[in-house]
Every structure is written in C-alpha cells, then in structure tokens.
Amino acid sequence: LTQRGATLELLLTPLSTIRKMKDQVFTLDGTASCFQRLLYKGRFLDNDILTAGEVGMDGTGTAVLSVVTQPLASKVMTGSGCEYCFLSVGGICSVHLQKF
Hints:
Number of helices: 3
Low-confidence stretches: 74-80
Strand order of the largest sheet: 4-3-5
Radius of gyration: 13 Å
Mean pLDDT: 74
Strand content: 15-25%
Order of helices and strands: EEHEEEHH
Distance between the termini: 17 Å
Largest sheet: 3 strands, antiparallel
Helix content: 10-25%
C-alpha cells in the first residue's frame, strides 16, 4: 500500500476484509478509516465487507491510499457515487474515471 510516497505493508489473506485493511492502516499510520480511500486497479474499495479475494487482490498489485479531509460516512449516507463531483451513482463518473 502506498501513500504520500511511503509504503505500508499489510498482512492480508484472501478472506481479509477492506475494513481489516483500513484497521491495519490506522495501526501503522494513524489515519482513521473514515478518512481513508483505498484504490486498487482503478477501483475504489468503499465496501468494507468485501474481502481481498473478492476485489481481486492476489498479492501481485499495489493499492493506493488517499487521505481525504472530510469523513467519508456523509458521502456513503447520501448515496452519491463519484467522490470528485458526485455525478455518478455507484463509483466514479466517466469524466474522472479517464484520469486513472
């Protein structure tokens, strides 16, 4: 996992949840999970109950951690999708997806 030019090594199994990953980041880095955005292979990992296996993590890739200034709970509760412009539902809008 990379963040701000640093690398954090997480201990995961295929059954490790996204929430467990965020908990490990908090332990290693001190960033609360509500401020974390994990990106893996162009996909934001917003569903904390999904497992590493379910999102395709097989130990060969690197996830990117983005730290946001507003807690993410408000975005999830409103049902908005694109974390940049809120134009899409369920992910990133097509305009911002092209930037990844």
